[in-house]
Specification:
four-stranded antiparallel sheet, alpha+beta, 36% strand, single chain
Length: 183
């Protein structure tokens, strides 16, 4: 039986970096060099001005991912990187589904599907209706499968947005302390 260091599983890596041109490219290049496929990626500003957060999910083994995190932290513009499993974080994704409005008119079953999946309608036009679902990947996939019969015209899903469960991990505090050191 494989131990945790060699077992393939889904990992989430979060990195905080100076908001500079090319940092995301440097981070993703590390994955490429190690032949690790990126499942999803999200990049956004965080609570500290001038600092961005990258959240990347990928399937790999722990040992390989720990090497990736160490390499990412060596990048000049990277402040700190963390490695998580799903047990360590609270996460969500957003999915949008565009279906023809004429397929929905008078369709009571669709209302049941939307409610059952805790989704909501964002926009209705004569041509199309946009439905939004926030949740985990299996939940957004389940709604996708349920909506297939309504002729989905477009489907888009975001990458993960994460917060750690660890009550002692205060990333904002770490970043603020680092900011003071640099001044």
């Amino acid at each position: 039986m494989a131990d945790d260091n060699t077992r393939q599983q889904l990992f989430t890596m979060s990195a905080f970096a100076e908001n500079a041109v090319g940092v995301l490219n440097q981070v993703t290049a590390i994955y490429t060099r190690r032949c690790i496929n990126i499942e999803s990626i999200t990049a956004s500003a965080c609570s500290i001005p001038g600092v961005s957060k990258f959240t990347i999910t990928s399937h790999s083994d722990r040992a390989s991912m720990e090497k990736v995190v160490r390499q990412i932290e060596k990048r000049i513009d990277v402040i700190k990187a963390f490695l998580y499993t799903d047990d360590d974080i609270v996460y969500q994704e957003v999915a949008l589904y565009k279906v023809p409005t004429d397929r929905l008119i008078g369709e009571k079953h669709l209302e049941w599907i939307i409610r059952r999946h805790s989704a909501r309608i964002l926009e209705i036009t004569p041509e199309y209706t946009v439905i939004e679902k926030t949740g985990h990947r299996d939940e957004t996939e389940s709604l996708f499968e349920a909506l297939k019969r309504y002729d989905i015209r477009q489907f888009a899903r975001s990458g993960r947005v994460t917060i750690t469960k660890d009550p002692t991990e205060y990333v904002t505090q770490l970043l603020e302390e680092r900011e003071k050191e640099l001044k």
